Amino acid sequence: MSLQEDRKEYLSSELGDNYLSVDPKNLFKEWLKDYRAIVKQDSTAFALSTVGDTGNPDSRIVLLKEIRDEGLVFYTNYESKKGRDIKFNKNVHALFFWKELERQVRIKGIVTKISREDSEKYFSTRPRASQLGAISSNQSQKISTREDLDIKFNSYYSQGSENLKCPDNWGGYCIQIKQIEFWQGRMNRMHDRIIFEKTMSSQWNSYRVQP
Ligand SMILES: Cc1cc2nc3c(=O)[nH]c(=O)nc-3n(C[C@H](O)[C@H](O)[C@H](O)COP(=O)(O)O)c2cc1C
């Protein structure tokens, strides 16, 4: 099987120089809205990269759950591998690939935990099965067999408590955006790339880079 013939032309849109002066948060929201109009499942998924104490980067998919003035919110287990990485190093990278629109967004940011109150509020809105999943999984930790995992889940499941409590080690993180790049595929690989960087005075500095 040859992978070399897997080629396409990117023709669907463009990012003119007028985009250099837009608010990148609004552009991000607009692009996400465009994507959600055509992709119904897991449309907010992105690759989150962290670097822990070994210095090796690690990436995994998580779901964006809220866009705040302060940044982008996702939820996870604070003691997972990513949680441990973040404790060591708050610099993260978020990568969105919106294939159907020939778009990519790359974000460099700094993460902080959201308030306990907000995490608990969100947890209470999750389906019960998802709540049980969060409660019964020590995310990223070793477990001998699938059966052991199922036994853990079923033991919580059968307790049948009405209001499940958000575990202390589970909650949200907010990625404060320091840099964001918008990539729009163009013809002949002459893609559009516009980067916005947060300045010391919290303004956006924008520039175009070559594809
Ligand atoms: C579509 C999709 C969505 C996911 N969403 C989340 C999420 O929102 N939060 C989360 O902790 N893990 C999510 N995961 C699982 C992560 O990719 C990962 O397996 C898990 O968080 C453990 O990562 P870690 O060991 O690096 O901490 C998702 C996976 C996929 C494929």
Give the distance, in angstroms, between the N- and C-terminal Cα atoms. Answer: 28 Å
What value does the average pLDDT take? 96
- In CATH, the homologous superfamily of the domain at 17-118 and 170-208 goes by the name Electron Transport, Fmn-binding Protein, Chain A
Q: How much beta, percentage-wise?
A: 25-35%
- In the CATH hierarchy, the third-tier topology of the domain at 17-118 and 170-208 is known as Pnp Oxidase, Chain A
Please tally the β strands and state the result: 9
- What is the global morphology? globular
**C-alpha Rg (nearest Å):** 20 Å
Please give the CATH architecture of the domain at 17-118 and 170-208: Roll
Task: Write out the distinct hetero groups bound to the structure.
Answer: flavin mononucleotide
CATH class of the domain at 17-118 and 170-208: Mainly Beta
Tally of helical segments: 5
Order of helices and strands: HEEEEHEEHHHEEE
Largest sheet: 9 strands, antiparallel
Which spans have pLDDT < 50 for at least 5 consecutive residues?
Answer: none
Secondary-structure-derived class: alpha+beta
Helix content: 25-40%
